[in-house]
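Sharing a chain and its predicted structure for anyone who wants a worked example. Both blocks are below, sequence first, tokens second.
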Amino acid sequence: MADLSEPPSRPASGAAEPPKVLTPAEREARMAATLTNSVFILTVLACMATVHWLQDLLTPLMVAVFSLILIDALARNVGRLAPALPEWSRVGIAFVVISLILVGAGALVVHSLPRFAADMVEAVTQAQQEGFQLTSQFNLPRFARFEQLDLRPYFSDLLSSLRQMATDIVLVLIYLGFLLASRRTFDHKVQLLFPTSKSREHAQRVFRRVRRGAERYVLLQAFKGLLLGSLFWVILRVFGLHDSIFLSFLVFLASFIPIVGPAAAVVIPVVLALSQFGFGWRPVLLFISLQAMVVAIDSVLLPRLQGDRLDVDPVVVLVSLSFWYLVFGIIGALFSTVLTVVVIAIASETPRIRWLAVVLSKRGDAVLPDGG
């Protein structure tokens, strides 16, 4: 007969514990979470494919939306300077200013692009010849010589993108006019879309966060672009380079493209200088001057002005540049960082995808409801 006084034997410490049996409710919850995440990923992929397919239609609309944000910011600044002005006049002044900037940019591209294209083709051809002569002196193999490198397709894509941007400005202004006309009914639509006060407050908080992040980045980069463009214009005029105004405008646009933009802003004038002056001290001194200026502004001045307001991981900045370029083309590259800022702002206010804000942000502070 067994001794009932002895305690039951315990399993050895190395023995595996039996798997935990999930209740039906727990299994259903896990299945629902997996299904929700799968549907979310598939929905995002489908939306990205649709946006890429409708790129020609949606790109001017995206530019118009960001122009509307700038108009709103400019109208508020006009209101601070002249509080007596009614709202419609403040918005009208801001709309006229932004429209003149867009029209002036389009006119500059249309006027200067043909000559710039011809100069770039000649400059690239001459630069390839100079590079081939230099590499031939060192007896490099044929695959390492410049004769195997054809840069003309890349510049052709750039020029066609600039031409498309100029023609899209008319469509941007049309979109912008309709968006301004629908601003009056925006509050009424919000009340219909979000009937409860809690949902309306959440929607307004998301909108304020998106607007604040977009305004900060666009205004800061616009200041950087104006500063770089002005300094580049002075240096290019001192060196006697052709198309200095158009090159300064390209520098302004390039300032919105992270990492690649500053490099392109320096390379293009140097290539044109090689074509105009030949391989001598002028192109070398021009490269040193422009590169030193870009490094000083990007590494010294801009971080002091920016501080920690742009809470985007540096790796994410590089990845987002490629991603948004694939989706929207050159406009996506120009707005890559601000689009990522908008995604972080929306994800940080949405509990289901708040993890995305943590991954994309630099410190993870974007998950805080009042962060940013």
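Comments welcome. Residues 87-137 form the longest helix (51 residues).
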